[in-house]
Amino acid sequence: QLHYSVAEDREPGFSVGDLAKDLGVEVRSLAARNLRLVSEGGQRHFQVDLAAGVLLLDSRLDREALCGQSPTCSLHLQLVMENPLQLHRVEVDVLDVNDNAPQFPKPEVVLEITEVANPGTRLPLEVAEDPDMGSNSISTYELSPSKHFALSINVRGDGVKMPEIVLEKALDREKVPVHHLTLTALDGGNPVKSGTARVTIHVLDANDNPPVCDPPISKVLLEENVPVGTLVTKLNVTDLDEGPNGDVEYSFKTSNNAPGKFTKLFSLDARTGEIRTKAPLDYEESSAYEIAVRARDKGSPAMEGHCHLRVELIDINDNSPEIVLTSVSSPVQEDAAPGTVIALIGVKDSDSGDNGQVRLQIAKELPFKLVSSFKEHFSLVTSGPLDREKASGYNITVRAVDSGSPQRATQKTFYLRIADVNDNAPNFSSPFDTAHVQENSLPGTSVFSVSASDPDEGSNAKLSYSILDNGMQDAPISTYFRIDQDNGTIYTVRALDYEQDKVFQVPVEVKDAGSPALSSTAVVHVFVLDENDNAPNIVYPSVPKGSAFHQAIPALAEPGYLVTKVVAVDADSGHNAWLSYQLQESAEALPFQVERRSGEIRVAQALRESEDSHRLVVEVRDNGTPSLSASVVIVISPEENSVQDFSKSLDLPQPSSEDTNLTLYLIISLVSISLV
Prior knowledge:
- By secondary structure, the chain is mainly β.
- It folds into six domains: 2-95, Immunoglobulin-like, CATH 2.60.40; 108-204, Immunoglobulin-like (Sandwich), CATH 2.60.40.60; 212-314, Immunoglobulin-like; 322-419, Cadherins (Immunoglobulin-like, Sandwich), CATH 2.60.40; 427-529, Sandwich (Immunoglobulin-like); 537-638, Immunoglobulin-like (Sandwich).
- Helix content is 5%, strand content 43%.
- The protein contains five helices and 49 strands.
- The strands form 15 sheets. A four-stranded mixed beta sheet has the order 1-7-6-3, with no helix packed on it.
- The radius of gyration is 59 Å and the shape is rod-shaped.
- Keywords: Calcium, Cell adhesion, Cell membrane, Glycoprotein, Membrane, Repeat, Signal, Transmembrane, Transmembrane helix.
C-alpha cells in the first residue's frame, strides 16, 4: 500500500508520487504490464504517466468539497498490473490550505439587553464559519474596545469556539441607548485571514431574566433507523420571570448561509421543547448531529437562552457486504501451478465496528482458496491441480459475511473456464486388430479402419494417422498399404499375392496436433485370403508342351498292374489346392484306370496279345471355384518280355524346401484363421 499527500491548491499535472520507484519496477515495463488506475470513487482526480512512471494530478482538488468538515481527507485508488496480475492500494491525503476566510452568518448582528442587567450578563453571538480545517480554521475572536462590554470565548464539546459578549459595567439606557461594536473572527492560517460582523446592542428596560437551559450542553445516544417520530429528548429550560416574560418558545438556531442539516431530520415542538425524529437516520451518512436550540421568552424586550444538543447515532447492522470483482483471469490453463492468481476481489461494508468486519468464503471442495492481500482485498488462487478433462469449468460462488448480529451476507457467482493443454496422448480402441483382404484385390481396396480417441479438445484432440515401416517385408510396408490420415481407413496400394505374402503386420501411429504432439501406436495384422488363381502343375511325368510321355508295360500285364503315377502340385492352398485325377473320355474304351486321389494309373482289364499302343489323356483338376486344370498325354505300349521295376522307373522328384515352406505357411494360416 502506497501513501502520498498533496495540497488542495496544486495545479493539474502536479507530480504526486513516483510509482515506479515505490513499486520497485522499471519504468519501461509499466506499459507492457498494462498499469492502470482504478478509482474507488465516482470521480477521477489522478492519472498515471506511463512514460515517467509517476502519479499526476488530473484536476484541481477542493478539500472542502471532497471531505467537508472531516478532520482527515483521503482519496483511495487502486493500481492494477498484469503479467503477473497484481493489485496495489494507493492512499492520497489531501492537505488543507488556508484558502477560505472566516465568515459570519449575518454581516450585522442586533442584540438587546435590559438596562437592569447585572455585570456578567452574557449575550451569545453567532459562530463564524470557516470551511478550512485544523490550524486554518477559526482560531479566535476579537471585539472592538468598549467601556461596557468585553468578549468571552467558550469551547463547545466538539471543540468549536463560541463567542459571547459579557457585560462588564452597568448600563444606563438614558445615556447610551445603543452600542455599536465590531466582532472579528481570525483563523490560524499563515497569513491570517479574518471576517467581521457589525454588532448593534439595544439597551432596553423590563424583562431582565433570560431563559436558562439545564444543562446548557447535553448528549443523547440514539440508534440509527429508529421509527420516525421517536422522542429524542425534552429540553429543560427555566425562566425566573413571570407571565409573558417567563413563557418560553423554542426554535432551532441556524445560520442563513449554512442551514443545519438536522432541521430536515428532527422536529422541535415550539411549546414543549420536545425534539423528535421526522426522517430516517443513517449512521453511514452521518454518525452525529449538533443541534442548537434558541429558547426565547415573551417579555418586552424578549430574552433568550441557548441549548446545545449532540445526538450520536449507534450503528446497527443494516448494510449487507458488497463484493467487487476487480479482475478475473478466465480462462486459466489446466496445468497452472498451485498459487496462481485467478481473481482479485474487494469487499465493502458501510457499517462500522463488528458490523463492518467482513470475511469471505468459498466452497471447500473447489480447488481454490482465498488469500488476504491487504485490508478488504483478497486474491483467489489455485490450491490444487486442475484437470479440464474432469471439469471444463467451475461456477465459483464467493460469499461475504459480516460479524454483526444478526449477520448479513452477500454472494456473487462467476464462471471460470479451464483452458486445455495437451496432456493426454491419443488412445486406440484396441492395441491389436485383425483384418482380412482377398488376394488380387484392386489397389485402393479398403482393408480396415482403426479408431482412436483423445480426451483433450481443439487442436490437442485433432488426430492424424500414419503407417510406420516395421521392416518385416522385403519392400517397405508403405508399398503395400496406405492410410487416410483423417479417418484411419487402411487401403491397399497394389494387388496382394497370397503365394508371396500371407500376412502383414501394419504398425499404425496416431498423433494429435498439440504442442508438443503426443502419439500412440497399434498393430493391425492383415491376413491375405487365398484365391484360386494357380492351375495345377504336373511335375511327373515331365514332358514338353505338345509332347506325350511313352510308357512300356508287359503285354500280359494283369489287372491292377501299376503302369505309372501322375504327380501334380498346386501353389494355392486349402480347397484350391485339393487335386483330383481323371481320364478324359475317348472314343474307344481303354483298359486302364486312374486313381482319383493318388494319380496312379493301373491296368483295369486284361490286355489282348495283339493290342497296339494306347493313348491316355490324364486331367488334373483342383477344387477351387472356378476350378482350374492341367493335363498330360501318356502313350502306353504293351511289349513282349517287358519287365519294369516301377520303383526305379518312376523317378519322382523329392519335395523342395520351397514346397515344404509352402505347406508350413498353409498350416499356420489355417490355424490362425481358426483361432480368429
